[in-house]
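User: I'm putting together notes for a lab meeting next week and I want to include a structural view of one of the chains we've been expressing. I don't have a solved structure, so I'd like a prediction I can at least talk through. The sequence is below, exactly as it appears in our construct file.
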Amino acid sequence: MGGCGGKTAGGAAPAGAAAKKGEPAIRWRLQSYAGPALNPWVCGDAIKEFNIAANGEMVIDVYTADELVPQGEMFQALQKGTIDACVSDDDSMASPVDVAVFAAYFPLAARYGIDVDVLWNWYGLNEIWKEAYGEIKGVTWLSQGSWDPCNFATTKPIRSLKDLKGLRIYMFPTGGQFMQRFGVVPVSMPYEDVQMAIQTGMLDGVSWSGITEDYTVGWADVCKYYLTNPVSGGWSGGWFVNTKAWEKVPPHLQQLFKLTI
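Assistant: Thanks for the context. Below is the predicted structure for the 261-residue chain, given as structure tokens.
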């Protein structure tokens, strides 16, 4: 899985880009789970290269978290064709498949990001994911990949399990359900509002990513403490497309897209 910017940083070709034989370019809208600061490393570089290689036959515009639709409604938006593609874990975009609970960080609890590649490509999870999404109309799953681990970054120290009690933490839905048994209060909100919520005391921290994202998006600037033992050692998320939109893409561009991601 490659790296994502916004519409400009992601390298979208201009709207008037010439298509072969005078036909208009296929134009897609792709939304990522990541905010503007992180998005260049999530999918932007990949889409930039795709747009260049597609040579005007197809253009993909990249949008960041919540820019077109709320993260929790992204699967429905993809299914309805409001967006043509997305990059996300199954869990936080409320995918209805039974395997969605194992996406993102918990309870899969991979030790390292490379575990995700191995499990999907060598231990049968690709086939399981294909079967699961084959039962859902309107959405096609293409591939799975991994990024950083998931740690707690907080405004208060966590030195024992009792220190978790009452902490209001921005985190993934399924992981949040699990952490409730230790007294954590999981909170959902737009990605771009998290830093301000920590600054104003609405949140006590995040358990959404590893240290790289914490520093990239600014959460490290407002959190004093970092718990080094992670909830999970590697995030799991995928590339998804609207099935009807995908079927309209010529085979050579489908292959180019799969090679790009």
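A couple of points you could mention at the meeting. The longest helix spans residues 39-54. The longest strand covers residues 225-232.

User: Perfect, that's what I needed.
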